[in-house]
Sequence to fold (435 residues):
Amino acid sequence: MKKSQNALEKEADLLNNFLTMNFKYGLKNSLKNLNVNRSRSILTILGIVIGITSIILIMSIGQGAQDLILNQIQGMGSKAITLSPGKQAEGFSSSSMLDSILSDSLKEREMEALLKKNNVPNVAKVIPIVFGNVTASYQSNIYRLMILGATEDVLDVYEVYPDVGNFFTKEDVASKANVVVIGSKVKTELFGESDALGKTIKLKSKAFRVIGVLPSKGQGSLVNFDESAFAPYTVVQESILGIKYFQHLIVEVDKEENTEQVVSDIKITLRNLHDITDPKNDDFSVQTQADLVKQVSTVTGILTLFLASVAAISLVVGGVGIMNIMLVSVTERTREIGLRKAVGANSKDILSQFLLEAMMLTSIGGFIGVFLGVVFGFLISIVLTNVAGLDWRFSFPVGAALLGIGVAVLIGLVFGIYPARQASKKSPIEALRYE
Fold:
């Protein structure tokens, strides 16, 4: 019994060694054949390389864009609730966005109602926001900027404070004072190296005194502070935009754990104020930071997957190229196939050989594609950070890289099966006669 067991173990070891040697030989032979036709091999895997590179690049850029937007949204703080006019937007549809622009359901009375403790007990602040693009001028210098009208509390929401001078006060808002705080780029474009404090600029032909200059901060909380200017919302509404409603109300909660309760209180208060009994008829929308993050993540995720799917078409084209070249290779190596079968190789050995070559081609293309995608993605992140001034972080899509290599191997398997089967079916006698 002991001898029988030892014999079985020896046979298993021999079979193991044989399979290992057979695989090593197949691998070595595949590399040799690919190296013989090096130029053809490079051109064959080009479609795979382009496809994988495109997918990795798109996924990397998509993740970077999503991170950038989410960081800006979260920059407003977890206790901020954004209230907008118009019905609750279903995604980013053009109809819901147009409805939001045309609606005037948020005015002074809505803000005053939300500030009452008996309506919304856990509210800390309610900050009105109005904005629009306007031309600013100083002497012969002209610059197009975004004007944001708000109260003095907007500083705490955006966490940006004047580097030079001061921000406007509660009294400035109440008296509709023509004062403005400008961004760093606005200051440079209008005043150059000279001091801007105390000087008067014109916004839509109205004179405004510069009382502060913001530090260079770039994009943040969906606002480019360098290219913007802040003024009391009362004067922006009346003198610049000519409106009597708010485009947003930012409600700050006293404690983060009270956010859901405040959202509920806001909806009840506004529905009572607007005589709305059916929530489907709401003429306002309420979004927490979590809602915005989820919505943006969904949209950017879908867009990224769509673009990656389009790029993946080149992988199919590359797969067809692999199959075509492998069929040509089978024809060219007919005598080799006949010779190998004549000395003992069976159909399975021939099939494995050609299948291995196809998978090696696509695998090499996959690794090269991942490498190029990562390099290009990193270079783009450097350009966007240093040239465009965005807080862009390079993101290496590990999942996409592993998926790309896996798909490359799968393409080699799928598109290599037919040529490999054609090679394995060849008769050794007919193959040896082939000229």
In short: Residues 10-21, 91-98 have pLDDT under 50 and may be disordered.
